Amino acid sequence: MRRKLVVGNWKMHGSIATNKVLLEGVIKGVGQARDADYVVCVPYPYLCQAQHMLEGTNIAWGAQNLCARGDGAVTGAVSPTMLTDWGCTYVIIGHSERRMQFHETDDTAAARFHAAQEAGMTPILCMGETREERDSDWTEFIVGRQLDSILRRYGPGVLKNSILAYEPLWAVGTGHPATPEQAQEVHAFIRARIARCDAEIAAKVRILYGGSVKPENAAQLFRMPDIDGGLIGGASLTAESFVPICLAANALDAATMHWAAAL
Predict the structure, then answer these.
(1) pTM listed for this prediction
(2) Does residue 241 have a known ligand-binding role?
(3) CATH of the domain at 205
């Protein structure tokens, strides 16, 4: 049974004052909701604040990117060990905004994925297609290529300590999410592709959906059999929207565990 996971991606938002209000609200809102897992991925300057406020809670924290190289002459970059110094246990890899705006590739995403694992962090690998690619029936080709960039290099075993995220670019930040059925179709494809290499790992790896998830549609998405939670962008910026999404995941996991215990 896969435990639900909700990851907040603040992107380039935040301030010391607004972060304090947000994190206090999230801590209060999910402190007793212990049937699912929660993470916030914050901008680099706020990792210290996240560690200070979240240490000892049921909320983990992570970063939104890293450099695949260790310490060295790479001006402006942040190494994996710098992140672990601040208690990061998760890091987002290959987000669509990084791929599109900073020209990151499958190859650089694979290198960052490996570097995160080598440092003891759990990478959250993002995959997804553009509207044009979906309309051309290229979704499986694009998502499969992005997934294969990891599987070909490192084998399916690396997925034991990783999270996958399907985030269709046409849904990210648009207010027009994939329907639960559309998202489930791609999640099932991802799981089946992994199963061709290792059925046991495919059954256990958590695959999140990202793309305009809101309190109003979270439960419907999370009920899909291959959707294990969400990678939440805009709705993670206020406790009023993020907490209900977390609670939707928690409620579904609690109901599943109660059902399993009754068998």
Answers:
(1) 0.94
(2) no
(3) 3.20.20.70
